Please model this.
Amino acid sequence: MLRSRKPMMTKSFGAAAVIAVLALAPACTDLTEVPSSSITPENFYQNETQAIGGLASVYAQLRASGASSNYYETSEISTDEMVVPVRGQNWYDNGQWLDIHQQTFTPTTTGTGGLINPAWNDLFTGVARANVVLNAMGNVTFASKATVVAELRTLRAFYYYMLMDMFGGVPIVTDVEIKARPQDTRDSVFRFIESELIAARPDLPATWPAAMNGRMTQGAVDAILASMYLNAQVFTGTVSATGLAPGAARWQDAITEADKIINSGNYSLETDASTGCTPTPGCGWRKNFTADNYSSTEIIMTLKFAAVAGLGNNYLMTLLGYNQYTPSPWNGFATLAETYHAFDTTDIRRQIFLTGQGVNLATGQPVKLLDGTTPLVFSDTIGANITNGSTGEGAGIRMTKWPYDPNHVGVDAGNDYGYFRLAEIFLIRAEAMNELGDPGGAATLINTTTRARAFPTAAKPIPTTIPQAAMRDTILKERLFELIGEGKRRTDLIRRGTYTQSYCCAPDFGYKFPNGPGPIGAYKILMPIPQTQLETNPLLKQNPGY
Amino acid sequence: MLVPPFSSNSESRLVSFFGRANASLNDKYFLTGVLRKDGSSTFGIGNKWAVFPAISGSWRLSQESFMRTGPFSELRLRAGYGRVGNPGAPPYASLILLSADGGSRYVFGETPVTGFSPVSNPNPNLKWESTAENNIALDYGFLNNRFTGSLEYYVKKTQDLLLTVNVPQPAVASTRLENVGRIQNKGIEFSLDGQVLNRPSNNWTAGIVFAHNSNKVVDLGPYLSLSEGTVSGQGQSGQNSEIIIPGEPLGTFFGPQFNSVNAAGQQLFNHYVVTRDATGKVTSRVLTGTTTNPQGDDFVVLGNANPNYTLGFHGSGTMGKFDLSFLINREAGQKVFNNTALVYSTKGNALTDKNFLISALTDPIGIDQPAIYSSRWIEDGSFTRLQNVTIGYTFDLPRFTGTARNSRVYLSGDNLLLFTGYTGYDPEVFTSAGLATRGIDYLHYPRPRTITGGLRVAF
Model:
């Protein structure tokens, strides 16, 4: 082969063209994004209609705090009001329901991953949505702006109320930046909520016309404040690994807020007589929970549901047997036998429980189990061991606090979820009176309000000679009977110091934990900050004890 | 009032400029440089453009005088470095957008009203994910190129991964797309092809391809781990099967270790007591008995879905008028999560008139027990597959047509034999590149066995 002595070199270049093309084609290199079918905060929230659109989205997030939400289920299932036993193939779900119910939750357990962490996100999403709209309100003017801003601040304060209740100290944020932030103390969060509510109250109406039912009112502010003051010793106290060091009591403030509501003239207890309903007795009380409860005169603050896809209350789906409803429910949640048996048999409030032969709620006809042959019969006992899948389809009492809505659309029913009812305001006032040394007065108040309604034929009054300590237990029980299923039990048990020992496990009808009900650390009155959140926001500190 | 269904449109733009320069010297030394500038509208302002260079060189050793006498008829050493970008961000991920979606609707009075709210978190700092690859390789041929092949080693480092991660609250959603973390792929690839027999009427070639890749998550930014790989089936809400965690490969299975079955027919899992430091890092892990209800600390790494190696063996040849070709594949060492068995190996299916696998008849687990994800369902997915065999016969048909030449009749079979210890239908389940979950078999449609016959007549 002939080879050249001189190095033979070839080269080629294609790069020179790049600069030329860049210079020639500015239009095709403009990469600015201009969304054509979406809107941005900069060009929205410019007038009243748009601002109310923003406001509606902040209200909408309330659905993530009421019946069937992560917050609600975490709260309820961690108490003696609800249990989700493993039922054969169903409801094991990574052990998350057992984790919550047995209070074994830690920052990394499955209940934390499946329920507590989503609750954290859900509630903060409410805060974030409120901040987006509030920040956009800075440079717009319209007639109802003061009211809209007051509603937004009340909503944000309420989301913070639930966060404080569940997690203690959390970051107080009023801007829209996404960044890591340290916690504020639980006491600071308490004072922030208090000052926001007090500042918002004058700009809120006392009532709304029916077409605007569900929006925030002065009564709603008073009710949140009354509840905060009732729990002030917990909310402003200090939690350590060994439990709660209580803060200052605010009993008189609770009475003051309760009286604002009671004396406003805007609310009255629903009774059989006031509604003229059938069947009596009891339908008057149930007016607070039926699909037409939007017109209840007793509900002070509410989460609105409608029988519209995506906007409804699907509470019944979680608990009914498979053939009791259309679409087929999920047959999960039950009430503990002890809790059911704590009700007096003549208490009208006991009507919410389904026992014995299960029926189709639409037709009233008896129904079968999923196998199509065995009758569905609800038993009060749940079984020897809820972690064992041997729990049967019909095991456990079912609590239909929000009854059947004949107009439901799929899973979506129109029953509103009342956060605060006048009945609770009476109970708050009575509890504060008892703590201030007037158990007799407290007994009289309850006897003439919730108990008068609950025992319409043969009255069962609390003796007015009852001592203060016994009255505490009586009020806790009365709150259970009146408010069961309404998301109050966890807070009540923590206030009375029995949350981490709430399982009485009476051997006659109770289920048993494999290793007994305890011991459960007293620090569990605060939920763990989920590990996910600690990693996402390194400035957060874990709650004590975890 | 706006009610679902909605429609929407979105637009994104990708612009690339590309330049390449080649240089060679004496047909021995080669140098290639590539410079590309890519722009994508989906990234944040200031991050839309990125420059990705690449350079590679090779030295054709076989052209050197000192190699003239060796066994190599072709020998080339090459090395390269290059960066490429991944524009995998959806439109508008860097902007804050409002939406009137269902989650923003509410009811005032008894009337649904449309709400407007941001429904995803913007990330104005979103930028290109990029991968840098270094490789070095040897291409060879000897005995006058009767045997050829190559040996290559590569290291790929991907940074600024486009991952959907949690954001600090409050935020309008729990996650957003961020550039987080780094992964690394290292591997070796080897191939050799040869003409085993080379006679006019008896001609055979055969070859093997071997590849080994090791994948590792290097860094996840502030996150200790991310969880993915949803488990399917009844009672599996909230259950994930895989974890992305620094130090382990993508596709790492994570769950409790199945231990035994107790007298009550319940599954028992290893129970660990774990201690952590103030930042949440695990400092010790002690096995302390068993539990029926495994919780977070009982979850451990159960293996990963990536094979240790893949091997291909192929051959083809002719003998007279017959021709034959075949292809054999082997993958070894990968784990498969048999989600199908998890769901259908539970006797309880019988209670609701559903079928279950025969293996469940003989296991000691009670009929009322739930299906629980664990190491019990992680199986070795190694396999060897006879992927294809084709036999053909070529002939002329002058008697009938006078002109027909090279007509051929053949029979070809795909997926003829599978050797595996895997208990499901087919261990070769969908494995995607990138960050998606891999190695989960849930009612995966098995590869069909197909036999094809054909006749070709040429005029």
